[in-house]
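Feature request, filed as a ticket because there's no other form

It would be nice if the structure record came with a short human-readable summary line next to the tokens. Right now we just get the raw output. Example of a typical job, pasted below so the devs can see what we mean:
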Amino acid sequence: MTNSTKTTDHPIAKKPGYKKTKLGWIPAEWEVTRLGTVVKVQGGNAFKSSTFCDFGIPLIRIANIKNGRVQVDEVHVPYDSKLERFILKKGDLIIAMSGATTGKIGVYELDFPSYLNQRVGRFIPKRVDHTFLRYLISTNRFKHDILVDAIGGAQPNISGSDIESMYFPLPPL
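Raw output as currently delivered:
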């Protein structure tokens, strides 16, 4: 659309029930909001490599996110009751928050607990269910916005608050 083209010249503008927003045309009953209004992004713990061991609680690092799933490898750490908030549960959605794979998403489908390592974030839904959240973070718009926000240094990097501040179209809940 050129600068001289009016908003009302857009084909969807002639269809009732749509409105123009900063994200483009969306159904009139939808709203544009920040991701943080419907989900919290929790970062992992900075486990020291000196605590790594052969047995214990598996540690989920960025490298464990493969093809949309989370896989466990040989890195474990001892259980610590003070770190309960970093334990992943079946169904948790996680995201790589730095490195060449920033924005890579995985679903934790294992039947045993694992710890969430630093630079891996967990989505904690507040107003949406896991199904909607999984759809939302799988969209091209989300992936694009993550990469745009992550670029800026020698290594791509994004924070939980950066992700929470992203805009998206929200249907009525």
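Something like this underneath would help us a lot:
Residues 1-5 have pLDDT under 50 and may be disordered.
The chain is about 15% helix and 30% strand.
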